[in-house]
Amino acid sequence: MKKNYIVTDRLITRITGWMAGLIVLALAIWGGYTIWHYYRFEETNDAQVQEYVNPVISRAGGFIVAVKFEENQPVKRGDTLLIIDNREYVLQQEQTEAAIRKAEAQLQVLESNIHTLERTAGAASAQISGARAKVWKQQLDFDRYQQMYKEEAATRQQLENMQATLDVNNSEYKTATENFNAASSRIADVRAEKEVVQAELKRLKALLDRHKLDVSYTVITASYDGRMGRRTVEVGQMIDAGEVLAYIVNNETDKWVVANYKETQVANMAIGDTVEIVADAYPGQTFRGTVISLSPATGSSFSLLPPDNSTGNYVKIVQRIPVRIRVDGQRKEIDKLKVGMNVNVYLPKHQHHG
């Protein structure tokens, strides 16, 4: 029995030795790989996928009569998302159109009045010329009869008749002049009134453009290719202008990662450096990226209450610098990365910076 125990102990010792050796070897390999990885890469797991997520905002208020999308649905630029009851806006547009037609009719009437007054002024001007000629001739006759009366070649009655005729002609001349001046003044008044109507017409046309915009705002469309996010509205709901109705993820812009590197890691980083990205959701797949910008300040400096080390309670904490990395590759592949996903970013050290 003792011999059997000795054999068993030796076997256990041997197995234990092999296991310990394997553990030591595994630790050595892991340690070597870690050191090699640390030497080769600047790594951080404080990184998230970012993309433009924009709200869909209504520019008109009213009741929703149709919702044309579902959550998470892909959409194209110009696709209709929502329709708002537009009857009030259409009525306002029609009222303004009627006011424009009325103003245009007023302009035509005023233009016709101007033509009529111009003809009246032309006739009065002709009367002035005729009356002036009559006054001139009658003045010559009166002067001649006055001379003849002095020479007793004409009677006083004849001279008085000539004087009366001259007064009548002068009165007709004055009347024709006043008619011409009145017509000219009326033309100026109508033209001034025409300018007022033209200004009102211009205002109404601008108002019509605004009403047309309001009508167009009742059909809310996708501003770009993208994917719909959370939906917060339903048919029959009353909304106000400026209200957020849904969210859309923009597919027309780049997708990027914000990697918050320690300040001790960014000394040799530069725009244009290439990086490797591994998402927690796809541990077996590596994505490629390019550094496109480094933050001008630490993340804490942009916080609502930045730390003030001069207060006396100073504890040195390693700060983080946000590094923006564009995700490269085909859209189909990079769309696997969703906004907000956690990723690990590996930036190779010793990259050549020209």
UniProtKB/TrEMBL annotation:
The chain crosses the membrane at residues 12-36. One of its GO terms (cellular component) is membrane. It is a single-pass membrane protein. This is Membrane fusion protein, multidrug efflux system. It comes from the Bacteria. Pfam families: Beta-barrel_RND_2, BSH_RND. GO terms for biological process: transmembrane transport. Residues 86-214 form a coiled coil. It is found in: Membrane. It comes from Chitinophaga terrae. The keyword Metal-binding does not apply. The lineage of its organism: Bacteria, Pseudomonadati, Bacteroidota, Chitinophagia, Chitinophagales. Residues 256-297 form the CusB-like beta-barrel domain. Keywords: Coiled coil, Membrane, Transmembrane, Transmembrane helix. Residues 56-249 form the Multidrug resistance protein MdtA-like barrel-sandwich hybrid domain.
